[in-house]
Write a structure and sequence with these properties.
Elements: E1 4-7, H1 11-23, E2 27-33, H2 40-44, E3 47-52, H3 63-73, E4 77-79, H4 89-97, E5 101-102, H5 107-114, H6 116-125, H7 140-150, E6 154-158, E7 168-170, H8 176-191, E8 196-200, E9 206-214, E10 220-232, E11 235-241, H9 248-265, E12 269-278, E13 281-288, H10 295-302, H11 306-314, E14 331-338, E15 354-356, E16 363-367, E17 382-390, H12 393-406, E18 408-410, H13 416-422, H14 426-429, H15 437-441
Parallel strand pairs: 1-2, 1-4, 2-3, 4-5
Antiparallel strand pairs: 6-7, 6-8, 9-10, 9-12, 10-11, 11-14, 12-13, 14-17, 15-18, 16-17
This protein binds ligand MV4.
Ligand MV4 binds next to strand 8 and strand 13.
């Protein structure tokens, strides 16, 4: 097994990876910006290296600084976490060229899934259902012609996109020119490529994603799905597994589709296939080739430590079980707790004066926060994840209610009051929500 791993990230995920390493007897190297010298992941790691100024572009995204830190400290592997360099194929390649293992899929797999059009092509070849759509668009007239064939409404997306940036909807031919030009401009600004394509726009889908694990010997297992439809401006707020919208047969169909697609490309490591689900049908959207923020709800119901498995797989180990051995138990829900005003969502960095995390049966809190910690203003505002597990969805909702009530965070505003409101809504309690439900109803919450 690896003796020493460098964690190329910050925040709760850096701590999450550190914990998996320690439990496996692996030494850890933290990297941090000048703003993060007092962070918990830096304190707990065996060694720490400052890799640059606060701005992420100068530190957590600084590939050569991270590779230098890895070389100097003599690590065997680098775990990229999520965000930052986790889906940068060039970085993964660079790591391997230095004789260091990249804890994640092969660079060419990251590269293919980063190209949303190629990912669609691959999906079609593997028999995954996709929304009706087009190739790269050549002009406004080309876009009009293709939209006429597909039928309105349509959505224009960036080829290098993801995460909702650069997406524009057109409801009729008159709206095409603006949607096409704006999508191209946003794509150019965000991804430095202005290539765009078109899909039929699904109006009220749910966002359901599938967690898979694959080793280097062609073994793939599916660890069930997560429903991530509770979101706002493309930021997930609450995720749950299993999806209240699926029956056993649909779940099995989705799992088998995802599993066979991953077998076909010889995928390696943990990965997530994203689907839209509408009127009983699934449509493949894109694949994330990294560990995801919401992985703990899958860990709760599967009993599998996903980060531990990523480390084992990167070290050339085989999955020690088959699909038949996977039993998904009960239900789990995650609330993302952000240091933000719960009404306006304006980030609220500052000093945590009081911190008491909830506990008890079925309650997990993943966070880097400690009492007296000063949240730097330079990064994502998520400061904790509350993950609650239980046998039934109703039981989990009761448990979540009491866990949110127990949470004490003073010094900064947090989104805890928002979570309390969401889980009290009848539609949420009944599992009746789609990707637009939160944004359409939030103003009526009390
Ligand atoms: C769509 C869609 C409707 N129809 N594609 C948003 C993020 C990116 N991964 C894809 N997204 C969407 N693609 C078609 N053909 C609606 C969305 C979408 C969305 C998807 C998942 C979760 C939240 C979302 C919020 C707005 C739009």
């Amino acid at each position: 097994m690896f003796e020493k791993v460098l964690i190329a990230n910050r925040g709760e995920v850096a701590l999450r990876i550190h914990r998996a390493c320690r439990e496996m007897g692996i030494k850890t190297v933290a990297v941090h910006s000048e703003a993060d010298a007092n962070a918990m992941h830096v304190r707990l790691a065996d060694e720490a290296v400052c890799i640059g100024p606060a701005r992420a572009a100068d530190s957590y995204l600084n590939k050569s600084a991270i590779i230098s830190a890895a070389t100097i400290t003599g690590v065997d592997a680098i775990h990229p976490g999520y965000g930052f360099l986790s889906e940068d194929a060039d970085f993964a390649e660079m790591v391997e060229e230095h004789g260091i293992a990249f804890i994640g899929p092969k660079p060419e797999q990251i590269r293919m899934m980063g190209d949303k059009l190629k990912a669609r092509e691959f999906a079609k070849e593997c028999g995954l259902p996709v929304v009706e759509g087009s190739d790269a668009l050549q002009s406004i007239d080309d876009a009009k012609e293709k939209a006429a064939t597909i039928g309105y409404p349509i959505i224009i997306k960036a080829k290098a996109g993801g995460g909702g940036k650069g997406m524009k909807i057109a409801n009729n031919e008159q709206e095409i020119a603006t949607a096409y030009m704006m999508a191209r401009a946003e794509a150019k600004a965000s991804f430095s490529s202005d290539e765009v394509y078109m899909e039929k726009y699904l109006q009220n889908p749910r966002h359901i994603e599938v967690q898979i694990l694959a080793d280097s010997y062609g073994h793939v297992v599916c660890l069930g799905e997560r429903d991530c439809s509770i979101q706002r401006q493309n930021q997930k707020i609450i995720e749950e597994t299993p999806s209240p919208a699926l029956n056993e047969q649909q779940r099995k169909e989705l799992c088998e589709l995802a599993k066979s697609a991953m077998e076909k490309i010889g995928y390696v490591s943990a990965g997530t296939l994203e689907f839209l689900f509408e009127n009983g049908k699934f449509y493949f959207l894109e694949m994330n080739t990294r560990l995801q923020v919401e992985h703990p709800i899958t860990e709760a119901v599967s009993g599998i430590d996903i980060v531990r498995e990523q480390l084992r797989i990167a070290d050339g180990a085989k999955l020690g079980y088959t699909q038949d051995d996977i039993k998904l138990n009960g239900c789990a829900i995650e609330c993302r707790i952000n240091a933000e005003d719960p009404e306006t969502f304006v980030p609220n960095a500052g000093k945590i004066t009081e911190w008491h995390a909830p506990g008890g049966l079925g309650v997990r809190v993943d966070s880097e926060i400690y009492s007296g910690y000063k949240i730097p203003p330079f990064y994502d505002s998520m400061i904790a994840k509350l993950i609650v597990h239980g046998r039934t969805r109703n039981g989990v909702l009761m448990r979540l209610h009491r866990a949110l009530e127990e949470f004490v965070i003073d010094g900064v505003k947090t989104t805890i009051p928002l979570h309390q409101k969401i889980i009290a809504q009848p539609e949420y309690i009944d599992g009746l929500y789609d990707i637009h439900w939160l944004e359409n109803n939030i103003r009526n919450f009390r």
